[in-house]
Amino acid sequence: MADALIEVLWFIDGCEDEQMDQDDAVKVMEGAAHMLGALPSGQRQELIDLVGEMADAERDPARREFLEAFPESFGFDNVP
Question: Are 13 and 70 in contact (CB under 8 A)?
Fold first, then answer.
């Protein structure tokens, strides 16, 4: 499930104006950040760990950068 969510967020993050309305893209990204931020801290940490593993295995530099920035971008940089 987490892989699918990451894939959707990666797609939205990379969309050009003609592919997706940028206001809608921001709403989706902010909504996802809000929902992910509401996860219990243990589940947030599991997601951070999974995304870290995905980043380590990623060969595409742009996608790796997205994955490495994911915790901070989605407000997980201060997980208790």
Answer: no
